[in-house]
């Protein structure tokens, strides 16, 4: 059984010292890996990320992260990524990592993803160059992620995103903002790539549990949704063909 600790939208700022660090002492008793689904900082300032890195450095289990839109805000992406890497965190952006845990291989494909909307209420690759560029960016991110997922040949395939692949976990958010909370291209990537489960954040006002149109379980782990430092999920297909309920 693989135990996954997951959280998103922790939004560290300059006052967040030890907010996660206090949970690192016993995290290994609860989980085998720790996933962070973006919006790790409030504005993407290196000082904010360093405060988080000081906490993550203490993690006794592998930490895997994607960035969120907030982490891009002050245009210091390479710097904040390096700060995480220096703390031992694996940062994914349309890339993957493979871990072996208790004799089973876990492939984690990660990407921030992007917005665009969902079937029947999405942008389209039509009209002004700005709109074409917006939707082409969204589709390109998803298509690259799909290939990364397909390339994984592991016992489990986990997808880690910031933006949502489904409207199901957005329930509670205003419908008008759904196109800015995720995109159906991401669900296509997940389903065509045959992922086992997806974690995302970004939808602070959404709900935890949903599925892609293809039936892949989706968990919105935005901290305002899960209301804990992190939630624990288990994958145990080889023992029992069920996933977190
Ligand atoms: Fe957020
Ligand atoms: Fe976000």
Please outline the helices and strands.
Elements: E1 2-7, H1 27-30, E2 33-37, H2 46-56, E3 63-66, H3 77-86, E4 90-91, E5 95-101, E6 104-111, E7 117-118, E8 121-122, H4 129-151, E9 156-161, H5 184-192, E10 197-200, E11 209-211, E12 217-220, H6 223-226, E13 231-235
Parallel strand pairs: 1-2, 2-3, 3-4, 6-9, 9-10, 10-12
Antiparallel strand pairs: 1-13, 5-6, 7-8, 11-12
Helix pairs in contact: 2-3, 4-5
One fe (ii) ion (FE2) binds next to loops.
Total of DSSP H or I helical runs spanning 4+ residues: 6
Structural class: alpha/beta
The total tally of domains equals 1
Q: How many strands appear in the DSSP assignment?
A: 13
Please give the largest β-sheet: 6 strands, mixed
Instruction: Sum up the overall morphology in one term.
Output: globular
Can you give a write-up of this model?
This protein is α/β, with parallel strands linked by helices. The protein has a single domain, classed as 4-Layer Sandwich (Purple Acid Phosphatase, chain A, domain 2), CATH 3.60.21. The chain contains 6 helices and 13 strands. The chain has helices at 27-30, 46-56, 77-86, 129-151, 184-192, 223-226; strands at residues 2-7, 33-37, 63-66, 90-91, 95-101, 104-111, 117-118, 121-122, 156-161, 197-200, 209-211, 217-220, 231-235. It has a 6-stranded mixed β-sheet with strand order 5-6-9-10-12-11, covered by helices on one side. Strands 4-3-2-1-13 form a 5-stranded mixed β-sheet. Helix 5 links the parallel strand 9 (156-161) and strand 10 (197-200). Helix 2 (46-56) runs parallel beside helix 3 (77-86) and helix 4 packs parallel to helix 5. It is globular. The two termini are 15 Å apart. The model has no long low-confidence stretch (mean pLDDT 96). Residues 39, 68-70, 162, 202 line the site of one fe (ii) ion (FE2).
């Amino acid at each position: 059984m693989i135990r996954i600790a997951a959280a998103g939208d922790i939004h560290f700022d300059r006052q967040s010292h030890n907010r996660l660090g206090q949970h690192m002492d016993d995290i290994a008793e609860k989980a085998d890996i720790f996933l962070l689904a973006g919006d790790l900082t409030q504005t993407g300032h290196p000082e904010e990320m360093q405060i988080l890195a000081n906490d993550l450095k203490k993690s006794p289990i592998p930490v895997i992260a994607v960035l969120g839109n907030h982490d891009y805000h002050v245009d210091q992406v390479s710097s904040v990524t390096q700060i995480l890497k220096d703390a031992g965190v694996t940062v994914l952006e349309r890339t993957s990592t493979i871990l072996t845990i208790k004799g089973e291989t876990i492939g984690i494909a990660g990407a921030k993803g992007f917005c665009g909307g969902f079937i029947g209420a999405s942008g389209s690759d039509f009209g002004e160059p700005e709109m074409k560029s917006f939707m082409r960016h969204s589709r390109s991110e998803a298509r690259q992620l799909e290939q990364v997922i397909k390339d994984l040949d592991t016992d489990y395939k986990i997808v880690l995103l910031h933006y949502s692949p489904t409207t199901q976990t957005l329930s509670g958010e205003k419908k008008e903002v759904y196109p800015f909370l995720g995109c159906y291209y991401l669900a296509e990537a997940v389903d065509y790539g045959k992922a086992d489960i997806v974690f995302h954040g970004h939808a602070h006002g959404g709900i935890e549990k949903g599925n892609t149109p293809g039936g892949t379980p989706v968990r919105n782990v935005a901290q305002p949704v899960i209301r804990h430092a992190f939630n624990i999920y288990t994958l145990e297909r080889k023992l029992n063909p069920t996933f977190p309920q």
